[in-house]
Amino acid sequence: MYEALATQGRERVHTGLAGIDSAKLKKLRNTHLKECFNLIDEMRHKLEFVARIKGVSFIDDAASRSPLSTWYALETIEGKVIWIANGAVNSIQKAAEFKRLKALVENKVRMIICLGDCSLYQTVFGDVVKNIIPVQTIGEAINKAFYSSDENMKVLFSPAAENGISYESQGESYKHEVNEL
């Protein structure tokens, strides 16, 4: 049971440990705990490991549709990151939300690839990330990220903004395109 939990990432470990505490309080047997951990696998598109290709790890965080959720993803991931995000409208309110990410982006992110308009990212992060690139498709974003990455880097798809496409659809597209590399 613990081995399965350990391979699922920090966020799922926290969720799992909370589940253990809850189950123990309810006096559930270990067989019931195992069933609970099987449900954790159903948490898709939230810091979900997709693949490791030539030393580059791909992580699907398509469910993160706000700067705060993306902050958590960046905080959780160790090492250098190429961040794939949804384009966002450059408004004063949005810029204020994204500025909360600035220190974390400066320390971890080597490139930002935007699906669509990247003007907000250039405004907020342009002085700390030199490569902010607009693309039109997830496939194009993944190829750009993969061929721009070094070994042991992480490619994180964490949209940080809504774009009218469901996170499930975007997450499945991301996983499909990664597996096509």
Task: Tag the structure with descriptive keywords.
181 residues; alpha/beta; Protein-Tyrosine Phosphatase, Chain A; 2 domains; 6-stranded mixed β-sheet; 9 helices; 18% strand; globular; disordered N terminus
Characterise the protein shown here:
The protein is of the alpha/beta class and 181 residues long. It has two domains: 2-40, no CATH class; 48-179, Alpha-Beta Complex (Protein-Tyrosine Phosphatase, Chain A). Helix content is 49%, strand content 18%. The protein has nine helices and six strands; from the N terminus they run αααββαβααβαβαβα. Residues 1-8 have low confidence and may be disordered.
Helix content: 40-55%
Mean pLDDT: 83
CATH architecture of the largest domain: Alpha-Beta Complex
**Helix-strand string:** HHHEEHEHHEHEHEH
Name the assembly state. Answer: single chain
Low-pLDDT residue spans:
1-8
CATH topology of the largest domain: Protein-Tyrosine Phosphatase, Chain A
